[in-house]
Amino acid sequence: MDKWARPTYTPCLPLGDNRSLITGCEKHIALSRKAATEGTVLLKNDNQVLPLATGTKVAVFGKGQIDYVKGGGGSGEVHTAYIRNIYQGLKMKKGKVEVFDALSLYYQNYVEEQYKQGKILGMFDEADVPAELLNQAKTFTNTAIIVINRFSGEGFDRKNDGTDNYFYLSESEKQMVETVTSNFAKVIVLLNVGAMIDTGWFAYNDKISSAVMLWQGGMEGGLAAADILTGDANPSGKLVDTCAKSFDDYPSSEGFHESEDYVKYHEDIFVGYRYFETIPGKKDCVVYPFGYGLSYTTFALSDITACNVKDHILVSVSVTNTGAFHGKEVVQVYYGAPKGRLDKPAKELCGFAKTKDLEPGESQTLHITFAIEDLASYDDTGIIAKSCYVLEKGTYTIYVGTDVRTATIIDYTYTVSEDTVTKQLTSYGSPEKLDKRMKADGTYETLECQPVKRAEFLNHYHCAEKPEEKHPLLDVANGKVDLDTFIAQLTEDDLFYLLGGHSNTGVANTCGMGCLKEHGIPPIMTADGPAGVRINPNTGVLTTAFPVATALACTWNLELVEEIGKAGALECKENNLSIWLTPALNIHRSPLCGRNFEYFSEDPFVAGKMAAAKTRGIQSQNIVACPKHFACNNKETNRVESDSIISERALREIYLKGFEICVKEAKPRMIMTSYNIINGVRASENVELLQGVLRNEWGYDGMITTDWGNHACHAKEVKAGNDIKMHIGYPDVLKTAYENGELTREDLCICVKRILEMILWLD
Length: 763
Ligand code: BGC
Hints:
The chain is of the alpha/beta class. Helix content is 27%, strand content 19%. The protein has 22 helices and 30 strands. The strands form 9 sheets. Strands 1-6-5-4-2-3 form a 6-stranded mixed sheet. Bound molecules: beta-D-glucopyranose.
C-alpha cells in the first residue's frame, strides 16, 4: 500500500480478521464491556447484599434503567449500533436474576413518552409509580434496585439552582428513594453519572444496603452493570475524585458560577483530596475518599518495603486475596512532603499499580517506582528559589494503601538535608488579577495584583534554497529532498493555506488539514473523541462507545486504557481518519463542569498516566493522538471568553502536570489548546505556555492545534507557535499580518514544518 493511501484514496479496506470490519466489532465491544466493569466502583455493600444470590428476584426503580446514559454530549458523543440499558442487561442474565418486568416496562413507556415530547436523555423527572404496581412489586420481591442517572455535555455546565439539580437528588428522585426504602427490605443503588454527585443520601441511610458507581459505561454499560450485580464480574474500580458531603464542601463551589467572564482559582493547589486531606476540619466533609472502592473479596497488603534506587524510590508490596471471590486490588502510594516554608498538601499520589485477577488465597508482589524529583514543589514567589521546583529539607513520608485516607505510613522515609532546587525554570503564565490563594491551614494569602511583562520568543527557522525542480511531499518521505527544501518551494499563499483546517473528506465530520494537491500533501482528517471515534451516523458507520474517561481512570489499569487507545486508533485507521482528538485531561475541579465525563480525574498524576497510556495505544497504530485542552478548560460556560485566573504554582502542579506527564512519557504528535483565556492571554496565543513551558521546558516537538472555531487571532497564534487553526484558518488575516511585517516567512514556515512532520510520520 502506498504511503498515505488511506487519507488520499479513502479505500474500503477492513482491518479485522479475515477482512472483516474492525469498527464496532465484537472484540472492541467486549473490550468496552470489560472496561465498564473494571471501572465500576462498589461504594457500599452492607450485609453482602451484592453480588445477588443466584435466582434473586429484583424490582428495578428509576427511569435510568431504560434511559441509560452511555456517555456525555458534544465531542464525547459516539454513534453506535446499539446501547444496552440496565434493564436489557439484567434480562440477559436469565437464571441468575429475575426482573419484575411490569415495573421496568412501565418505566420504558414513560421514557418513550418523554422522548416523544422532546425531552433529552438523562434530563427529565422521575415517574410516579402507581400504588398497585408498587404492591405487585412488593409481592414479587423484597429486593429493589434504584437507578439514578445524569447527563452533561460540551458547551454548558450544570447547576444546583432548583431548576437544574445536578449534584443533589431532585424532588422526584427523593420521592422515589423514600417510596422504595419504605417498601423493600433490601435496596441497592446504581449511579449512572459522568463524575462526582451527592453520595451522602445513601452512604448514611441504613435502609440502603449497597451502592454501585457505574459511571457512564459506554454501549455495553447496562450489561456491565448486570455483570457486577450478578457477580459475573467483581468490581475493582477505585474513585478518582473525592465524594464530599455537600456541593459547598468543594472549594471551587463558591465562585464557580460567580461570573461568566472569569474563574478565580482561589483554592490554588488544594484541589480534590489535596484540599480535603490537608485543610483542618475538612476530612469530616468526605463521604468516600479519593482512591476508595470495595470488592466482593478482601485483600491484605503485607511485606511492604521501600528503598532508594539511584534517583528513584522503589516500593514493593505483596497483595493477598484473603476472601472467597477472585478479584483485583489497586495499591496506591502517596508521599507527604515536610511542612516547610512552602505550603504543601498532606498527601499526594506518586505511584500506583493494579494486581492481576487473584484467586482466593493467591498473592502477587507489586513494584511501584517514582522519581525523587517528582516530590518537589514549585516555588512561584521565591520563598526559597523563584520559579524553581524545590525539595525542601526534612523528612518525606511514604504512605501505602488502597485509598488516600487509609494509606498508612510505611517504615521508610526519605530525608533531604538541605533545600534542594531540582529544576530552575522561568516564570511563565503568571496571574495579574489573582487577589488571594489558599494556604495549607485554610486561610488565604493575599496577593498583589499587578501587570506582568510577558516573555518574548524568537522563532528560529532557516529558510532553505528553493530547489530547481518541483518535489512532491513524497520525495521528503523517500529521502530525496529534505523538508526545509520542500517548504522553500511553497509560496506564501500555500503557507497561509496550510496553516488552517480544511473541509471533510470521506467519513470525517470534524475537518482536516494538509490537502495541497499540487504539492502532493494529502488530506489528513480528524475525529473526536474521548469515549470512542465519533463519526456522523449518516455515513452508516457505527463505532464502539467505550466508557467515559472518568470510568476508564477508575480502572487504574493502564494496560487496559492503552488497549482502548489501540482499538480506537484501529477504528480511525479503518475509516481513513488519521488524527484522533483524544485523550481529554482537564481536571475535575468542580462537580458542575459540563465536560467532567470527558476528563479523567481531580488528580493530575492519574490524569497524566491515563492520558499517556491512551496516547501510547493510539500512536502504536500510527494514528496521531491529540491530548486536549491545554489548559485550564475546567468550566464550559462562556468557554471561549472566560479567563482562568490562577497562580503559577497551581498551573504547574495541578493544571499542566497531567500534560507534562503525558508529553514526557508518550510523546503525543499533537496537542490541542483550549478555548479559554489563561491569566489574560488566550490559550492558543499564549507564547509563554506554548513555547516556554511546552516546547522549551518539556521538550515537546509535536504540533499544536487550536480548539475548533475559537475566538483568538490567527496571526497571533502563528507567532505563538500554535501551528494550525481548526476547523478553518483565516488566510486573509495571515496575509495582512505578513504584509504588515507582523509575521515573517520564518514564522509561517516553522508552523508549517511541524504540520508536515506530523503528516510525514503517518503511514
Ligand atoms: C471541542 C473539542 C473537539 C472539537 C472538534 C470542540 O468544540 O472542544 O474537544 O475535539 O470541537 O469536534
